[in-house]
Design goal:
- InterPro entries: Asr1405_Asl0597-like.
- The chain is built from four helices and three strands.
- The chain is of the alpha+beta class.
- The protein has one domain: 2-Layer Sandwich (Ribosomal Protein S8, Chain: A, domain 1).
- A three-stranded antiparallel β-sheet has the order 1-3-2, covered by helices on one side.
- The longest helix has 15 residues.
- It is globular.
């Protein structure tokens, strides 16, 4: 099996609200995920593996969903593990 097929790199441009993109950028930097955020440009993220892709999804989800939706999702996760 080719190692590049098991861990493909994915570069994605993320379209999110202007105010939120800097918060996402800073959090991704804390997580060590390669990203760029230039003035008046969308956030560009390069996920090097599946874990980074999931972390990206989680960070964006936390900012785009409301508190009630996040609480409901967390509750359903706890029910799955019971």
């Amino acid at each position: 099996m080719n190692s590049s097929s098991s861990n493909p790199e994915v570069e994605q441009v993320i379209e999110i609200a202007f105010a939120d993109r800097w918060q996402v950028y800073r959090r991704l930097q804390e997580l060590g995920i390669s990203c760029q955020c230039r003035t008046n440009q969308p956030l560009s993220v390069k996920a090097d593996n599946v874990v980074e892709a999931i972390q990206l999804w989680s960070v964006v989800r936390q900012l785009t969903l409301g508190r009630r939706e996040l609480a409901s999702w967390l509750e359903s996760c706890w029910q799955i593990h019971d």
